[in-house]
Amino acid sequence: MERLDASFAALADPTRRAILARLASGEATVNELAKPFKMTQPAISQHLKVLEDAGLILQRVDGTRRPRRLAKSGIDAMDQWLAMLRKALEKNYDRLDQVLAAMESNKEGKRR
Amino acid sequence: MSKLTLKTEGDTHIVVTRRFAASPEAIYRAHTDTKLIQQWLLGPDGWTMPVCICDARPGGKFRYEWTNGKVGFHITGEFVELRPYSKIVHIERMYLPDPTPDNHVETRFEPDGSGTLMTMRMTLPDPQTRAAMLATGMEKGMEASYVRLEGMLRVAA
User: Fold this and answer.
1) Which helix (H) or strand (E) covers residue A102, if one does?
2) A24, A93, B34, B111: which has the fewest Cβ within 10 Å?
3) Which CATH code is given to the segment(s) A2-84?
4) How many degrees, rounded to 5, is the angle at CA B109 between CA B31 and CA A88?
5) Beta strand B48-54 pairing with B61-67
């Protein structure tokens, strides 16, 4: 339960969500992560620590590099986000189904 | 059964497909006629589109503004190519309030049995932009989840 709280708190920040989304396309170092966010390396490191403490990301040692990657729960979180985006799109297209059905019945009405 | 698919492709693409029980012509019109767009392009429940400007011709501009009664945001864009009733190519950006990098969107409508298969292919300038876009697009849903799950954690932005 504590872990769950930590993971929700970690996700309550747009930068950290964007970092997770970036890691979803492959592992990356602090430098690589800092660049697109226009943030300093220490600021990114702070975000990474929060994500790591929450169990959302892992780091490995590769010489002097410390690349980060998504942990299982980080992948689950990303999947959840994708599911939410999908849900918003589904709402749109379910409404579009209704609009199309109404267009069709209008057309038939005019034909009669 | 979910009719919609959403997947990332390569480093910079997002591809959405959906089948509709209507003709390509009807779906094309629903994407280019403001009176129709305002009825469905609304995202999560509770949002409306009070401003819908759409000059559907090559080089024409569009502007969509959404509100949930408390906050709002808008997108602007330009049409690159319109091929009735099979293809729409446009470029768009979202203002939050600063503009996001341009999203290049190609939407195709193909006859599929008695209906239509729509394929929407978004191309972002780089992997980071796509990552940020996916994260942004999910914020509304995240907000709702927070309210439900905890009621105390707040989205920072």
Assistant:
1) helix A72-111
2) B111
3) 1.10.10.10
4) 55
5) antiparallel
Q: Which residue range(s) make up the domain with B94?
A: 5-125
Residue ranges of domains in chain A:
2-84
ipTM associated with this complex: 0.78
pLDDT digit of tens for each residue in chain B (157 aa)?
A: 348 888 878 878 889 899 999 999 999 999 999 999 999 998 778 889 999 999 999 999 999 999 888 888 899 999 999 999 999 999 999 886 778 789 999 999 999 999 999 999 999 887 767 776 776 654 444 444 333 333 222 332 3
Provide the number of CB pairs (under 8 Å) joining chain A to chain B.
130
Cα angle A90, A96, A97 (rounded to 5 degrees) comes to 90
d(CA B135, CA A34): 16
Give the CATH number for residue B12.
3.30.530.20
Count of structural domains, chain B: 1
Using the beta-carbon criterion (under 8 Å), do B134 and A82 form an inter-chain contact? yes
Q: Chain B: give the shortest CA distance to residue A64, in Å.
A: 24
The torsion angle over the Cα atoms of residues B140, B103, B118 and B14, rounded to 10 degrees, is: -70
Q: Do B44 and A93 touch (CB under 8 A)?
A: no
Does the CB of B6 have a partner CB in chain A at under 8 Å?
A: yes
Answer yes or no: is B130 within a domain: no
